[in-house]
Specification:
The structure holds 2 protein chains of 2 kinds. Chain A is α+β, with helices and mostly antiparallel strands. Chain A has 2 domains: 7-50 and 144-175, no CATH class; 54-124, no CATH class. Chain A contains 5 helices and 4 strands. In chain A, strands 2-3-1-4 form a 4-stranded antiparallel sheet, covered by helices on one side. Chain A is rod-shaped and about 80 Å long. Chain B is mainly α. Chain B has 2 domains: 8-117 and 164-423, no CATH class; 120-163, no CATH class. Chain B is 70% helix and 2% strand. Chain B has 16 helices and 3 strands. In chain B, a hairpin with a 4-residue loop joins strand 1 (128-131) and strand 2 (136-139). In chain B, helix 2 (38-75) packs antiparallel against helix 3 (85-92), helix 9 (241-266) packs antiparallel against helix 14 and helix 10 (275-306) packs antiparallel against helix 12 (323-341). The chains are: A alpha+beta, B mainly alpha. The interface between A and B is small, with 10 and 10 residues.
C-alpha cells in the first residue's frame, strides 16, 4: 500500500456507485476498494477484487480441530486412563468411535468457527481499540464510497481522475 | 401463454419404464402362486408386498415433501423459488397415486393377504384360546376348555388402542386426504393466478400454507412413519424415527426438483431459471444430506451406546444380515455429498448435480428398503429383479404423472407477486 493520499468518491446510492465504477474501470483506472454499509452484489467482479480465501482457512481450522479432538480423546480415553462404560471396552479407538463422534463434530465446528472469525478480524484489522478506517463516517450509514489510489493509476493525473469521478453522479469527491 | 409439451422421448421412456414395472408386478403376483412349499410362499408374499410398500411410501413421501417445500416458501414469502414453483406443484401431484399404493398394502394386510404388520394378526392379543375341529377361537378370559395362547404378545396387546386397522385407516385417510386436498387448493389458486393477479388470493395461499405446515409437520414426524414403517417392527420404537424418515424423503424431493430443473433447462425450457436458482437447490441438497446423516447417527449412536436389548434388535437385524447394504447406504448418502458438493462451483455445476442427484436418489431408495425389508423378510431379503423392476415401474409412473401435470399449465407462473424478484435472483 502506498502512503500517499487517496481519492474518494462518495455516492448516496449503491446502483449509482456500480454505474460509476463501470465508467471508471472502462477508462482503465484501477479501483482499489469500495466502502458500503451493506454488501453491494456484483461490485467485486466490476472492480476485480479477488475471491475470498476464508473458505480454505475454515477447512484447515476444521481439520485441525478434528485432529486435536481425535488425538485428545485417544490419549485420555484409550492410552492414559481406559474406562469401561456401558459395556464398551476402551482398548481400541475404533470400537468406541461412535461415542466420540459428537465431540469430534463439535470440536471441528468450534475450531472452524472461531478460527474464521478471528482470521476475519485480524485480516480486516477490526480489533478492540482500533480506530475506524472508513474514509467518511456516513459509509456506515447511508452513503457509499469508492477508493482510488493515484499511485496505482499513473496514466491519469489526480485532477483528471477527480473530474471523471464528478461526472458519475457523486455527492462529493475528496482526497484523504 | 406458452404451454409446455412433453417431449415424445420422455413419454416413450416413461411408458417403457411402466411396462418394466408392469412385468415386475406380474412376476411378483405369479411368484405368489408358483411357490413350491409353504416357506417359499411366505417368502414370495413378504417380498412382493414389501416392494409395494417401499415404493408406495417412497414416492408418496417425495410428492408430499415437495408440497411441504412449496408451503415453506409460501409461508416465508420467499421470492427466489417462484420460477421453480410449477415443478414442485407437479411433483406434489403424485400424492394420490402413492396413497393408493399404500392403501392397497393396508387393505390387503387387513384381509391377511400378507403379514407385513405383525400387529394385524388377531392371535397376538388374547391370553387364551380354544382349539376345536373348526378352528381356533381366542379369549381374553380363561373360559371352559381354554388353553394358554402361545402366540400371545403382551407388548403388542398393550398397543391395541393405537395399532388397530380401523383407527389406522381413519387417521391415514384424514392425514393423506388432507394433504391431497391442500395440494389441490394450492394448485387451483395457482392456475387461477395465471389469468390475473389478485392480492386476496395470494394471501389465502400464505394462510393455507401456514395451516399446511402444521397439518404436515406433526403427522410426518409421527403417525405417517410410525404407522407405515415403524409398526413393522412392532416391539421397537424410536422417537427420532419420524424426523429421520422425513429428512430422507425431503432430500429425495429436492433431488427430483433439481433433476427436473436441469432436464427442463437442457431441452431449452425454463429460461427464467439462472445459475443462482440452481445453486440454491444444490445448497438444499447438500444441507439436507447432512440433516439426514445427523439424524441417522443420532438415532444409531444413542441406541448403540445404551445397548438395551429391546432397542438394539432393530440395528442387529440390519447390521448382521445386511452389513454391506446398510453401511454402504449410510456411507454413500453421507460421504458422497460431503466430498462432491462442498465446493461452491460444484453446486452450480449441472452435471455434478445430476450425477449426485441420481446416486443419492438411489441411496435413499435403499434407505427406505432398509427400513422395511429387515422387518418383513428378516435376513432373507435381497435386491433382485423384482425390486429393481418395481422401482423402475414406479419411476416411470412418477415421471409420467408429473410431466403430465407440468404440461397442463405454463412452466412459470408469471402473475405471482414475486415473479420479478425471482427472475432477478442473484447470489454468490
Amino acid at each position: 500500500m502506498s502512503v500517499g493520499k487517496k481519492i474518494y468518491a462518495l455516492y448516496n446510492d449503491d446502483a449509482i456507485l456500480i454505474e460509476g465504477a463501470k465508467v471508471v474501470v472502462a477508462k482503465g483506472i484501477k479501483v482499489s476498494d469500495t466502502y458500503s454499509p451493506f454488501p453491494i452484489h456484483g461490485i467485486e467482479r466490476i472492480i476485480g477484487i479477488k475471491w475470498t480465501r476464508i473458505a480454505i482457512c475454515a477447512f484447515m481450522y476444521g481439520i485441525t480441530g478434528l485432529a486435536l479432538a481425535i488425538s485428545g480423546m485417544y490419549y485420555m480415553m484409550i492410552v492414559d486412563w481406559p474406562m469401561y462404560i456401558g459395556g464398551k471396552p476402551n482398548n481400541y479407538f475404533l470400537q468406541n468411535m461412535p461415542s466420540f463422534v459428537p465431540i469430534m463434530f463439535e470440536f471441528t465446528v468450534l475450531c472452524a468457527a472461531h478460527g474464521m472469525a478471528l482470521t476475519y478480524f485480524l485480516r480486516n484489522w477490526t480489533l478492540p481499540g482500533v480506530s475506524a478506517k472508513n474514509p467518511h463516517p456516513r459509509t456506515t450509514d447511508d452513503h457509499f464510497a469508492m477508493e482510488i489510489d493515484p499511485s496505482e493509476n499513473t496514466s491519469m493525473s489526480v485532477e483528471e481522475i477527480q473530474n471523471l469521478l464528478k461526472e458519475t453522479g457523486t455527492v462529493e469527491v475528496f482526497e484523504k | 401463454m406458452e404451454q409446455f409439451t412433453i417431449p415424445n422421448k420422455v413419454k416413450r421412456w416413461s411408458m417403457i419404464f411402466m411396462a418394466i414395472g408392469g412385468l415386475a408386478l406380474i412376476m411378483g403376483i405369479a411368484s405368489l402362486f408358483m411357490a413350491g412349499d409353504e416357506h417359499a410362499h411366505h417368502h414370495a408374499v413378504a417380498r412382493f408386498w414389501s416392494n409395494l410398500l417401499i415404493n408406495g411410501f417412497f414416492f408418496f413421501g417425495i410428492a408430499a415433501c415437495a408440497t411441504f417445500f412449496m408451503a415453506v416458501n409460501y409461508a416465508a414469502e420467499s421470492g427466489w423459488w417462484v420460477v421453480i414453483k410449477r415443478i414442485l406443484e407437479a411433483i406434489g401431484s403424485f400424492m394420490p397415486y402413492g396413497a393408493v399404493a399404500l392403501f392397497i398394502v393396508l387393505i390387503a394386510g387387513a384381509f391377511h393377504m400378507h403379514h407385513l404388520y405383525h400387529w394385524m394378526d388377531a392371535s397376538v392379543y388374547s391370553d387364551f384360546m380354544v382349539k376345536t375341529a373348526e378352528g381356533i377361537t381366542y379369549y381374553s378370559e380363561p373360559v371352559e376348555g381354554a388353553i394358554v395362547n402361545p402366540d400371545f404378545d403382551e407388548i403388542i396387546a398393550g398397543k391395541i388402542a393405537y395399532l388397530n386397522v380401523p383407527f389406522m385407516i381413519i387417521r391415514q385417510l384424514l392425514i393423506m386426504g388432507g394433504w391431497i386436498y391442500m395440494w389441490k387448493r394450492f394448485r387451483t389458486r395457482s392456475l387461477e393466478e395465471d389469468l390475473g393477479f389478485e392480492r386476496g388470493r395470494h394471501f389465502k395461499n400464505v394462510r393455507d400454507s401456514a395451516i399446511f405446515l402444521v397439518a404436515f409437520g406433526y403427522p410426518i414426524s409421527t403417525f405417517v412413519p410410525w404407522d407405515w414403517i415403524m409398526s413393522i417392527d412392532t416391539h421397537w420404537f424410536s422417537t427420532l424415527f419420524g424426523w429421520y424418515v422425513f429428512s430422507g424423503l425431503w432430500l429425495s424431493a429436492m433431488i427430483v426438483a433439481i433433476l427436473m430443473v436441469v432436464w427442463l433447462k437442457s431441452i431449452g425450457e425454463l429460461k427464467e431459471v439462472n445459475d443462482s436458482h440452481i445453486h440454491d437447490l444444490g445448497k438444499w441438497m447438500f444441507a439436507i444430506s447432512f440433516l439426514w446423516s445427523y439424524l441417522f447417527f443420532s438415532q444409531f449412536m444413542l441406541i448403540w451406546y445404551a445397548n438395551i436389548p429391546e432397542e438394539v434388535t432393530y440395528f442387529q437385524a440390519r447390521i448382521n444380515a445386511y452389513p454391506l447394504l446398510y453401511w454402504g447406504m449410510f456411507f454413500v448418502n453421507f460421504i458422497f455429498p460431503m466430498i462432491a458438493l462442498m465446493d461452491r462451483d460444484k453446486k452450480r455445476n449441472r452435471m455434478m448435480l445430476t450425477i449426485m442427484g441420481i446416486i443419492l436418489f438411489c441411496g435413499h431408495w435403499v434407505d427406505v428398503y432398509m427400513l422395511v425389508t429387515p422387518g418383513t423378510m428378516k435376513q432373507h431379503g435381497y435386491i433382485g429383479l423384482l425390486e429393481v423392476g418395481m422401482a423402475i415401474g414406479f419411476v416411470g409412473l412418477f415421471a409420467f404423472v408429473i410431466t403430465r401435470t407440468l404440461a397442463k399449465a405454463p412452466l412459470v407462473p408469471k402473475n405471482h407477486p414475486f415473479f420479478d424478484e425471482s427472475v432477478h435472483h442473484e447470489i454468490h
